[in-house]
Amino acid sequence: MLVAVDDHPDLLRDVERELRNRYAADYRICCLSSADDALATLDRLAAAGDEVALVLAGEELDGRPGTALLAQVPRTFPQAERVLLVAWGRVGDPASGDAIFEAISRGRMDHYVVRPGGPPDEYFHQAVTSFLLRWAESGHRTPHAVHVVGESWSGRAYELRAVLERCALPHRFLLADSAEGRALLGGARLRFPLMVMPNGHVLEDPSDIDIARASGTAVAPDRDEYDLVVVGGGPAGLSASVYGASEGLRTLMIDSGGIGGQATTSSSIRNYLGFPRGVSGGELARRAYEQAWVFGTRFALMQQVTSLAREPDGVVVSLATGGVVVAGAVVLATGASYRRLDVPSLEALRGSGVVYGAAASEAPLVADEDVYVVGGANSAGQAVLHLARYARRATLVVRGTSLEAGMSHYLVQQIRATPNVAVRTGTEVVGGGGDCRLDHLVLRSRTTGEEETVAAAALFLMIGAQPHTEWLPPTVERDPDGFVLTGADLSARGLDALGRPPLALETSLAGVLAVGDVRHGSVKRVASAVGEGSIAIRLVHRLLAA
After folding, report:
1. Which parts of the sequence belong to the FAD/NAD(P)-binding domain (predicted)?
2. Which of 118, 346, 531, 540 ranks highest by number of CB atoms within 10 Å?
């Protein structure tokens, strides 16, 4: 259901016209003229078990800010998208901008949209459709979803969900003996776990390569030649692929997982240029993948690069599958992953309540439970806010003494304003367990050493950064933590190996550049990674010309 509330009859009529004309075939439309009526209606809908996807509210209702109504929506419909209707003349007004930012930061609303003008207002519909897509992907009507069906939460079924998460593919998990699982299988006797693709094709206990073939992203290179090979499919790698292919370079992207890298764990990136209403990491990755694909980039996903070597005809890239590619230039964009917690009792429950990364698809599975997120950076802040829309209580566990040290100001504000989010600074997870699935954690104060056992249905770990560089040859110089040295950061030994002054992002192996989180000294932000990916292509042109 879509709910719109405005106490101005003419303005409400405009909104109702646009909603009914465009969405009435798929959603029920409910338009109300007061905040009190809206709250009473939401209570009735919740009691009846109905779903509300979107609530639109005027800037002022009954003499009060419309955000006062939107702030109360999560009481009955925590996953509903809450949107403020803003007059066209307010856009660009400093006071209005400050008020919207403050309301979003304090968790009173999710988005804003400019009121509809003359019919049909496609700008209005573009925004509303994006809100409905966000709601759908939160576990309601996920479009083009892959269904994973398993006999248990853990094991290979969990690994498949992790693969799909890394690929930024919308998906749902169903237990084989659940009502939905049985309905999907229709009595067929198959080998679990299963993947049911959006076109109905069923993969029984698929390997990663099977998944890549089914999605059309597997190649079997036999010393194929490319101008550019990009190793890594995160924001930096996708950027390099888009710019490289768009500028006429024969481009291949290789990744051991899928696309998006750690960005796929971000449920809402609000400070990325050009997305005033925010964008999820998965959505950003999917858009970039389609851009690269249309420009001509070829993909080898679910394939591991095992070595690089400089030969007379170029940089030779070898794959674990036995394939070989020869590149004029290589861009390393392998990124970094979250560090392990090194608590054996919790590692044993990986996939059964213990998750590395935010795993947005897991959020609907922890409804009305107590969950914990470990980490102090933006990705952890975004994760705890996303989980709070489902969980009874979401707790952020931070080793440091404050959130401000590693997190953007707008996220800190929103976390502190969200009623069911708790923050425990100066704390670490030292134990936990459960019978087949996580049910408790042991937390320790780093100040006093005191330990406390708490009930927990899920633990999301987003700590530290470990670069994916262990496979690189010794000729690629790295710092003590494994991050790749480039340009002016190369040592005398690295410069000797290169044999000439390096380009800005070039490694100690000629013709090989490094960008994004894998590079020593990089700024751990999506926008920075995208920028480095684009800069790398200008350097690739210089390398190829030489």
Report:
1. 226-533
2. 540
Looking at residue 162, its amino acid is: A
CATH topology of domain 222-337+466-545: FAD/NAD(P)-binding domain (3.50.50)
> Was domain 146-206 assigned CATH 3.40.30.10?
yes
> 222-337+466-545 and 353-461: same fold?
yes
What CATH architecture applies to the domain 353-461? 3-Layer(bba) Sandwich (3.50)
The percent helix, strand, coil of the chain (3-state, each to 5) is 35, 25, 40
For 135-192, how does the pLDDT look when each residue is reduced to its tens digit (9 = 90+)? 887 765 666 678 888 887 677 887 787 777 766 677 778 888 888 888 877 777 788 8
Q: Which pair of structure tokens corresponds to residue 29?
A: 């439309």
The structure's pTM equals 0.76
CB atoms within 10 A of CB 456: 24
Question: Which residues in the chain land under pLDDT 70?
Answer: 139-144, 153, 166-168, 215-220, 265, 267, 358-361
